[in-house]
Amino acid sequence: MNDTVIGVIGGSGIYEIEGLEGSEWVAVDTPWGEPSDRILTGSLNGVRMAFLPRHGRGHVHSPTTVPYRANIDALKRLGVTDVVSVSACGSFREEMAPGDFVIVDQFIDRTFAREKSFFGTGCVAHVSVAHPTCARLGAVAAEAAEAAGAKVHRGGTYLAMEGPQFSTLAESRMYREVWGCDVIGMTNMPEAKLAREAELCYASVAMITDYDSWHPDHGEVDVSEIIRTLMGNAEKGRALAAGLPGRLSGERAACGQGCDRALDHAILTRPEARDPEFVAKLDAVAGRVL
Ligand SMILES: CSC[C@H]1O[C@H](OP(=O)(O)O)[C@H](O)[C@@H]1O
Ligand SMILES: Nc1ncnc2[nH]cnc12
Hints:
By secondary structure, this protein is of the alpha/beta class. The protein is 27% helix and 22% strand. The chain is built from 7 helices and 11 strands. Strands 1, 2, 3, 4, 5, 6, 7, 8, 9, 10 and 11 form an 11-stranded mixed β-sheet that branches. The two termini are 19 Å apart.
């Protein structure tokens, strides 16, 4: 099997990680355009790591304009096998309080203005996202977060909204009371779907920053409050990332859930009917099966 290479996608307020040996910001070209930023590569405890700030350093990209396909392709191109995404999220649950971490395991995707697949005309594929996150990697992220001193909730449903505005009160109540969601954010979709198409194990750590707008005892969502909470959590976020390599062995066994073989039976277009130019763009994400 391949060696483990850990990718960390840092969300709002997380624009770099510290302590990587031999660290270097590298530019990666992809057939899907430029990623959000250069990618910080290096190693920790002998395990290679790659860190990508989702919104770019300086927070340049909005949730809608984050180049999700380029980001996932670039990580895959660098040899990443396991992606841990860290995101600021609102909470729909009293007990999931600001400052807590939630290991997300389900999503409801309400985004509508983003490219959601690497595949399309010339090479059609359908992967399953019934279980959109990797349970093994999520458990590792939970352990690392707990060791970093965070209160961790294992499991939660993330409502992915388009944004950039926060939800109305009626939406917030519907997501919470009718749809049974636990947290809300603007970026984990299509990121998780694309990671699955690229056969990457993907775990999502939601750092709770606010109670969205439903909570009668809390005011409306406010970016400065979100950033204040994130800054208060920055040390735990860094320790979480630093705790990953020690918990993932260098040599990688096949994923028990099959994340790394998601394309085995997914491609529908017959080989002779595929568009060679389009197929060439899939070299990194689907080269294993094309
Ligand atoms: C800073 S408030 C809203 C912003 O924060 C979250 O970003 P990320 O998921 O990258 O941490 C949320 O999804 C919005 O994009
Ligand atoms: N309440 C909220 N809604 C959407 N994205 C968020 N990111 C942080 N808090 C959020």
